[in-house]
Amino acid sequence: MSAEKIININEETFNTKQTPKLNEKNFSSRVDINQLLARVRKEEKKDYQVNLIFFGMFAILILIVGILLSL
Question: d(Cα 50, Cα 46) in Å, to the nearest integer?
Fold first, then answer.
């Protein structure tokens, strides 16, 4: 008897990852420009809100530093 262990390895444990097959029903040849424009407008609105928040925080910081320096 040897100290080696005999392990049964199934081929199922070595499944390689396969790329998912594209479903032809999900993709059509037509593109709705209104949906694309709505998506762009939504992203721009979100970016505008984030920029407005950062500008407000910067303005408050300048105001607080100005008040502290004037005392």
Answer: 6
Q: How many helices (H) and strands (E) does the chain have?
A: 1, 0
Read off the pLDDT of residues 25-61 as tens digits, 9 standing for 90 and up. Answer: 666 678 899 999 999 999 999 999 999 999 999 999 9
Q: Please tell me the distance from the alpha carbon of residue 56 to that of residue 62, in angstroms, as a whole number.
A: 10
Return the structure tokens found at 33.
């420009």
Distance between start and end Cα atoms, the chain: 88
Tokens of 29: 């040849």
Whole-number Cα distances in Å, 24 to 28, 31, 67 = 8, 15, 63
